[in-house]
Amino acid sequence: MQYTRLGNTGLVVSRSAFGCMTFGSGEGALGSVYKVDQSGATELVARALDAGVNFFNTADAYANGQSEMMLGKALGKRRQDVVIATKVGNRMSEALIDQGLSRQHIIASVQASLKRLNTDYIDVYLVHRLDPYTPIEETLETLDTIVKQGMVRYIGFSNWPTWLATKAVGLQRAHNWAQFRAAEMYYSLVGRDLEHEMVPFVQDAGIGVMIWSPLAGGFLSGKYTRENPGGNGGRLTGFDIIPFDRERGYDVVEQLRAIGTRHHASPAQVALAWLLSRPFITSILVGASKIGQLEDNLGATSLSLSADELATLDRLTEPKAIYPNWFNATIYDAPVRDALTNEARNALKRS
């Protein structure tokens, strides 16, 4: 297992984190995702721990709290050995106020999550979505409160746009509030939008990035092809929310198969190994409903792709530049850039 720090903190986490979204049962939009009972959850968590995973990710809204409860039971006495991330913001009942990022809902939700997880503190607490009806200052001040009260160690955001996250960090610094140290965001070989604005921001702000759906809902597992677009009833047949170019995606899967053949690795392992090579990524969230799936995903941490293989995947999936990024890329001063680049190379040689 590989380990790193969570952003600009001293918290050491495994680069493969276990995502517990499959824990529980239910109907609705995520009914096809909730498929693991307590016995299965306990087995999966134990296998993850044996593999060196010390980072577990869940949310209050997953199966209406079942995921948190099942994770807490599965960890048992090992809770002190691991880092738990959970989230707040999505609707938890029909009550009008039982959602969002208001002071009322955040405090009520963190208390409820602590009970479900059977723990005295949450290591990483993430706001799960935007809340356009609550002033951002109210949300940030409340997050600072629950950190100072000891209920939460670190805070972060999930699925926020860069402009809002940037504004939030500015307000946190101005008011001396607890700062965002984690971001849970979607990123994969078929969805590299994060590189446009979010990546430069998190690197500058010292925020660690946790990647959800690193296989694009399972598409990059290799089971979905032009010949078999349904993947024999895979997850995407019931939970298909990630937009991407399917035709280009099939080309990516073919390349993953070719590279995997050379390494005796699965397409999923190659896709995850590419993600682990990205310097701005702290952890990738690997979820599973079966031990075989988990073991295959965890195998990516021991897979080392060559520079040529990484470059091939980079070229094949390179996102189209957006304005003003493409414009700014053309107006750098070449002499200064080259001089500084050469100096950096010389310094590396001297060291």
CATH superfamily assignment of the largest domain?
NADP-dependent oxidoreductase domain
How far is the first residue's CA from the last residue's CA? 28 Å
Give the biggest sheet: 8 strands, parallel, barrel
Tell me the fraction of residues in β-strands, as a range. Answer: 5-15%
Mean pLDDT: 89
| Outline type | globular
Low-confidence stretches: none
The CATH topology of the largest domain turns out to be TIM Barrel
The domain count comes to: 2
Order of helices and strands: EEEHEHEHEHEHEHEHHEHHHH
Query: In which range does the helix fraction lie?
Result: 40-55%
User: Which class best fits the helix and strand makeup?
Assistant: alpha/beta
Rg from Cα? 21 Å
Task: Please state the second-level CATH architecture of the largest domain.
Answer: Alpha-Beta Barrel
Number of helices: 12
CATH class label of the largest domain: Alpha Beta
